[in-house]
Fold these 4 entries.
Entry 1:
Amino acid sequence: MQQRIIYSLFLYLISAATLIAQDFNKLDQYFDSLEVHNKFMGNVLLKGNGEVLYARSLGFKDIEEGVKLEEDTQFRVGSITKMFTTVLVLQAVEEGKLKLDQKLSEFIPEIENSDQITISMLLQHRSGIHNFTNDDLYDTYFTSPQTREQLIEIIKEGGSDFEPDTKGEYSNSNFVLLTFILEGVYDESYRELVKERITKPLRLEHTLVGQGKGSNEASSYSFENGWQKEQVTDMSIPLGAGAIVSTTEDLGNFIEGLFSGKLISDESLGLMKEIKDGYGRGMFQFPYYEKKAYGHNGGIDGFSSMLGYLPSEEVTICILSNGSNYNNNTIILAILDTQFGREVKIPSFQTATLTEDELDQYLGEYASDQIPLKMTFSKEGNTLIAKATGQPETPLEARGNHVFEFVQAGATMIFDPEKGEMTLKQGGATILFKRTNL
């Protein structure tokens, strides 16, 4: 359900810049560059005051069949689903069917620490329940249907990672359990609850809980020597943690409906926006200069997504991708920079070609005093490979002058072979690593 690499979850807080006029032609050029260099496939949407300001479809719904993406193509939206689930939970609270301080033990007592874990902790990732999608075992069954009993047993076996309410740590398990709680409270399937309580009232005609690949749904791809089709998760598994299928237009209407009071009260919306240790209830806060956006992002089966709303400006942004070989945060910043009149630079994807012998000067293990992370660099042919602690091996793109990039994570690595040092720059952070095997 999620790739275990150093992708960042949020837009980074950056300093103020000089305002210039909007230039959507420049944004077209930006996306033209991404498309021609096989960096991004998907749909993007920007709205202001409820009106569409910019929309674009890039790439293919199905590469093998040569079918292009269209504005109404459906995508798996991954963890944006958690916003839908949270709305359903808060509706149940408003109706007196649930209480935020109710214990998990009243519904699913077999989970460790269930007598200490509340509904609110599940919503805000403070339960301590282990994230079952992080386990290697997950890769052995994610394409096969799972029952309620099987999922509860898997989550039960995962145990607890920390004492409830002592910190926040992301776990899909929380929202799978919330799905079962909602189904029990209403005696209806999660799929029907989403339809009756969210998509029907807001007239979201292309949004549903997935059950299998629909005819209007995009296939997803990863990039490795060309676009390669991804395996897909059986939607009986992610449920309220990640099973929604939707479009950019529908998601834009969903978050605007949420903030305009069409789904829950202002008090309940305030609970969603209440941030503690980086987590709201089913919602994140994304800083953009002095402004604040609220929303969620997601990733599943090669799909990646982001939905955000800036309340003070009434600006909505949505990205749904079925193939990304670039950092989506950078794309989001380019769209927002265009909207707010800041300069957008067209990315250059010019690469340098190094020989195997030239790569030798970078090889070895590097450690930092700033963070508890080690990075090991090896080579495959004339490609430099990075492997961070607990992460898979990742091929880097050479940019010349001892500079390499991991574009998908927005990470740049600058080597100084004579000193045996490597400087990692990512999301505004600069971290110095020194080679340990000099």
Note: The longest strand covers residues 291-300.
Entry 2:
Amino acid sequence: MTARQSFSVYRAVVFLRQLEPRTGRTANEVINFALWPIAVMTVLHRVVVKAVNGYITDDFRPVYNAALAFLNGRPVYTANFNWVDPHYLYPPSGTLLMAPIAVIDPEKSRWLFIIANAIAIVIALYLLLRLFGLGLNSIAAPILLLATFSSETVTNTLVFTNINGLVLLGEIAFLVLLMKRKDMWSGVAIGLTFAVKPILAPLLLLPLVRGQWKVFVTAIGIPLILTAVAWPLSADPMDFVRHTVPYLMESRDYFNSAIVGNGKYYGLPTAMIWTLRGVFTAIVLSSLWLLYRYYRHDELFFVVTTSGVLLTASWLLGSLGQMYYSMMLFPLLMSVVLKNSVMRNWPAWLAVYGFMSYDSWLSSRFIEAGRTAEYMKTTLGWSLILLVIFGVLTVRYVAARRDGRLDRGIDPAFLVEPDVKTPEAPPRDPEPDEQPQVESAAAKT
């Protein structure tokens, strides 16, 4: 074999070695190698197969029709609310932002909208990792990607083709910029979501209690400016006020996981519904007080935990709560990586199963029980997560008060108290039979 041939063989071997899959040498590497392909294929399946196939519930069609009507100067707010089909409920500012989707035909527009939401969710997850100081090389990255795209909230957001993926990106960007004290840009991120739907409005309590007043300039200013632009361009802007807003204020008894929605569906007495709402209001207020009183200086924990409490409470106690809103709780769930997280217990993840799982509990054998489990799982999940957070914080408070360390906060003792080292035992004299036998130099000689 000539030198040239030997060199060619060497180059071929080097090239093939580059293609050889690496073998995991640590537990983290093995988990990464195992989960990344599963996570990527799950994302592709949700986007290319389930989302493109669609479902009987189609949130995109009324939005496309409204955008098309807006571009052609026709009335937009013409929905018949006596039907349970998806309705167009966005304000004129949202119509203005959504108008470009009607420039092309509905099928291609829907595909692009699905892709835009999927990309927004992936970017939001990356920002969430960075918020907690994690990167793509951590085992949290594939776990987070796989878990989110396996959940009901992400799957149905893509299948129903609504805007929640972009709203999630706005939420995570808001939290990241809020933590970095970039107040004006933080307001821009959440203000754009307000222009479409006010689902994140409770989060404005965060900059309020943190004294970040500039957030409100852009958070309120952007939707107002977009409304001022859209109002004269709309054929029927006042119909949003007269026709749509009253519907939004009602508590419907279908596709509604709020206490009032399920209460009406199952025919609970009005007094019982208001009692349940009152009890959970007290639980939420107590949790918020404990978080503000003892955790506001632990910024990351305070921001992500408080945001989870505020959003869950708004859906459970408000007039409308739908399961796929739970996507906005990803920051709370991700807080499990923090040592003092309220998510480090099994009841918390039982609650997560309730409002995140894609499992259907409808049963052809146990019809009534299956239907009840299916319709109640989100309500029970949201209720349980609020109870868990309240319980964890209350137990911490009681323990800290008992131990007389409230001045140091209410974190568990093992997190705030230094480890107590066991004192070393004093040296003891050796027993007679343990005396070392030392030979003299003369004896050795």
Note: Residues 250-413 form one domain.
Entry 3:
Amino acid sequence: MLNQQLISFNKGRLPEMIQLKYEVMTENAFRFFRGTCHLFYERLAALKNFPASPLAWICGDLHLENFGSFKGSNHLVYFDLNDFDEGILAPALWEVIRLVTSIFVAFGALEIGEEQATNLALLYVNSYAGTLCKGKAIGIEPRTAKGIVKKFLKHAQTRNYNELLEKRTKIKGKKIILSLTHERHFKLDKTLKKELMDHIDTWIATSNESPYNYKVKDVVFRFAGTGSVGVKRYLFLLKSTNAKNDFLLLDMKQSFESSLMPCVNELQPKWKDAADRILAIQERMQNVTASLLGRTNFNGDCYVLQELQPMEDTFDFKMVNGNYRNMLQAIDDMAILTASSQLRSGGMDGSATIDALKAFGAKVHEWRDEVIAIAKNAALQNEQDYNAFIKDYKNGVFANQK
């Protein structure tokens, strides 16, 4: 049964956060879709007569809101895929169908007609295939972006750390600390808090990935995302030891095995741990990796570290609702970036070569219609699952689950 599948998958996560995850998933069918990536791939992998596609590195949980802006390690702002927790080596079309399904699910939630959603899905598939055919990965930054994405990136460039700090910190006496009135910040046990602060101070002092000349001033538990709600996640406030009023915010997120792992037959590299897998896949798929991207182990768990940035924004499709031209531009860019991430990582550890991906893109007429049909059916299944979930949630089935 659906409720048992969801409860079983979330076992081992933080109990108090699991309840928040279930609550968040009640918002709409798209939020439910984001929180049930494992369920989507269980059903996708079970399909018979699935169209063949070459192996590629995929982020695994690609949907409309897993694209966004961020500052790269070169201090420039980019628009790209931004979530690699589920990253894995798998058929290239798995990534495509996940994204196309998200188009039908999201536009259903936005009450956009099926014909319009289908046209956008076709645009995505055609643009994805067309980019593969060119065999050259493309990056998107403010100088090369167009339309709504260009505006999105220009806005991201104007934001600064002072704005971010104003939202997430407060002044206590003569100190600046992280604010517990922020809706996504939660207080930590004193012992755990000290252990975390000492750990990151040691990481800063010993890791080549860390920012130099900074000290930890505060840490809170951070609530973020949908599918990742329930994992251990912390936000650190770092202060420069050299410059006055120079702060950084560092996100530390617990890593798990990809939920796609039970669904794939392909041999995977022997990663050191889940954090090693996530970092390796992110570095090979993104045009430029995010600032302060690193890893650490704490109390037996592995974590990915990354700077929390004032320009890091998820692309919210509500921004373009009602403007079809903006929708077209955004979907086209997402297709280009999807193909580019696969081209960029082509030929690595078992993934298809660029020539193989080019040949596959050239045969889009052989698999395009089937991809659209599978995605439509997956969106309908998601809607049914969501309705069943809402009924069980209201009946208290998910209450007090651990």
Note: Residues 364-394 form the longest helix (31 residues).
Entry 4:
Amino acid sequence: MLQRLFIFLLIFLILPDIYLYFRFIVKLTTKCWLRILYWFPCILLTMGITYLGYFAKNIQAEQQFQLVIGWFSIFFFLFTAPKLILALCTLVGVPFHKWLRWPRTPFICTGLTLGLISIIIIIYGSFIGRTQFDVKEVTYTSSRLPQAFDGYRIVQLSDIHIGSWHGNVSAIQKLVDLVNQQHPDLIVFTGDLVNHRTVELDGFQEILTGLKAKDGVYSVLGNHDYGPYYHWKDKHAEAENLSDLKQRQAAMGWKLLNNEHDVLKQGNDSIALIGVENEGEPPFSQHGDLTKAMRGTEGMFQILLSHNPTHWRREVLPQSNVDLMLAGHTHGMQMKLGNYSPASYIYPEWCGMYLEKTRGLYVNLGIGYVGLPFRFGAWPEITVLTLRR
């Protein structure tokens, strides 16, 4: 991947440095060693891109390699983003200064301020934000809900991406403790337990076994759980990996719903909990069979677990009577400022509750991360969903 981005990254890195060097550095100092020192970060980052892109282990899905790329990317943006912002702000000020005689200072100060803010966001999101678990209280109201389920509490987790937590067992233990403190009636997990391989669960499986709810823990598969982004030796190895994941979830006490359903009972009332395998928009995998999963639940209040929120408009709304769908997948692109996220350009429904009349979709922002070890605004989410009549 870095090979394909190599030229773009070099442009992103070098052009702002060249501009700022001639715009500021040569005017601020005549000392040769300071001018040379200015280029050190650029030289080191260029060497890093070259090494990772062309000489490092060329297996994109290897856990350690992915972690190295992730942290290198953080430091890359930490040094380049502020310079790019400052360069753009000063360039914007050029025509105003030339033709309107506006002073350059406001544009420079704006660039410096925004650059400093970008540094703070990157540092906070990388070292604090990715473990800043956010317990969100959400209510879904429906007149179709059986009386006995009024006040029923569901904790939703999604997108743990356990391979990204390598070396940080305490964070996952904190997650489990926070979930259990909510005293849920039910825990559901809406896919992407691993990044690539089931062995990522080593060291975490026993901790995740500690998740407890009165009616148990249910899960579905996400696109990453099938291992499509790993360079498998053959199809048999890929199938064995998925089989191992299913066995481990069973050993953890999680009930995996693969295009099937279960009936939850409260007193004399019952609701249907339906789960489909990943049903994503291309190029994401499509293994779901909603018709099969729903068979036998006609007339019941239905909750659907489906990893990808695009499934809601593609099939769930037009072809079913599902009352509430729970999804994940988007991560909010791991970046959210107020109500804005780059995820909104890709997913019509990317965070929180969406309603079509009385039918709802809730999109959980997920727990883990893919690529960059970073979250800002789109904090790792524990959803506590209360059902009401």
Note: The mean pLDDT is 94.
